[in-house]
Amino acid sequence: MNYIQLYWDKIESGQVVVSKRVRQQYEKLVAELDNPKDPWIFDVEQATQPVQFIEEFCRQSKGRWIGQPLKLELWQKALLQAVFGFVHKKTGLRRCREFVLLLGRKNGKSTLLAGIGLYMLVGDGEGGPEVYCVATKRDQARIVFTEAVNMVSQSPSLRKHIRKRKTDLYFPVVFGKVEPLASESNSLDGLNSHCVIIDELHAIKDRNLYDVMRQSMTARTQPLLAMITTAGFVRECIYDDIYDYACRVLDGGVLDGGVEDERFLAFLYELDDRSEWTDFRAWEKANPGLGTIKSYEDLAANVERAKNDPNFLPTVLTKDFNIRETASGTWLTFEEANNEATFSPDELHDTYAIGGVDLSATTDLTAAAILVMRPDGQLYALVQGFMPGDTIEQRAKEDKVPYDHWVERGLITPCPGNRIDYWYVTDWFARLRDEYGISAYWVGYDSWNSPAWVEDMETRLGYQNKVNLLPVIMGAKTLSAPMKVLRADLAAKRINYNRNPLLLWALTNLAIEVDKNENIRPVKKADRRRRIDPAVALIIAYTVLQNRIEDYKALI
Length: 556
Hints:
The chain has 556 residues and is α/β, with parallel strands linked by helices. It has helices spanning 3-13, 20-34, 44-57, 74-85, 109-122, 138-154, 156-161, 207-215, 238-251, 296-308, 313-319, 334-337, 392-399, 403-408, 423-436, 451-461, 476-491, 501-509, 533-547, 549-555; strands at 40-42, 86-88, 98-102, 130-135, 163-164, 169-171, 176-182, 195-199, 224-229, 264-268, 351-358, 366-373, 379-388, 412-415, 438-445, 469-471, 495-496, 511-514, 520-523. A hairpin with a 4-residue loop joins strand 5 and strand 6.
């Protein structure tokens, strides 16, 4: 049975409602059924083996159906065939080496992962297979592992051949094992993984765990990295990287920013638009097991509560519908903050800009921003971070924030030594002027800790304090109105910030304090690791823009 074709037929007929990205993936797969891409073919027998294995040998491990055979749904069978069915026409080796499945909570993801893990242990024909269930914390890593243990205990056939040992499941026939691992384990080096299972990818803050486990598979002939997750609240982590990569693969078109990666599959069950969360007809897009695996009544109850509880809404959007969101208490939603548009700084040549600077302590993150307005009202933003070079690697590791990655991309300037030298902030404005012809006509700044930098800007670039350099009082009375305009402009995608992940991360970290007159000002959340400095630099620039808007329009 070709479940890929059957699933696609139901999608095409409207019997099954899926997201745009899921449709894209299966449209590609169906096209290959009749017109395979050399040297790959679709082998329906190999494709069906994991389906047959799971349904014949795996058993339900909880609920009223405990001990009963596990019956897969059509979307699960189609996914398994997609992952396992496309093989090399000569060697028979599997094409897919990595896949990501995004779906709402309570859609049976742990059960599916456990079934895949057991198949990779028993049925994939690998000698000495090492199957690892991986997460940041051991308790999370044990969820899929425990599900696999329970499946084995309920299955007479598997129970005969697989032993539960102290730390793993052992299959002596081929000397294989299934074992939970966490980033806190003593060592992740030296592993020889045949299959790596990552449950709740969004919870992994440090991409090193993903990179190490991916590298651990290089000695195997047909390894598999399986990732299943809901969306999460942590921005600019490995989840966002994988999600963005998946979208680029699905979109295709290398010249348009797409990626060709035939060994990577993505099944992104999500709402296509945030507004769909109240439309019950769209819920299936993020919940393919709705009405069978997942209770429709429970989801409807969550939606009704979210309508009346703003603090609960981000959880429902993120966990039930896979809308990337910020945590409750943040100023902006992810949808408001996110902008996929890009530009080249060369496009801003010979323009006047308005700048903003947030000078942190010399051992922390400092940020600078510039805004350029075009005559049509469109705004372009460039944002730069500055950190002590000696501490970046340590801070990235301890804070689980990719500072080192942003340095590589040129988004953070590492200052020599263990302190920030504000000379580099001045130098950034100088380079924008000299290399790109972008001149910051006014630069706003928080007067705290600023005298040395102000003097440097005066000496080196000829600025005059309180003429071109404008101190901005960081209180609600000053910032409230500009921040409200900024939020509206971000939501309207009027501000193109070149998909700068450093700025997006800061915007999604930023909280606000509201006074008795409903004026607002930016504040940090309790977690010191969630920095807001790049967002504050943008707010300062926006404050100057609003105060000098008519004068600025005369310049452009």
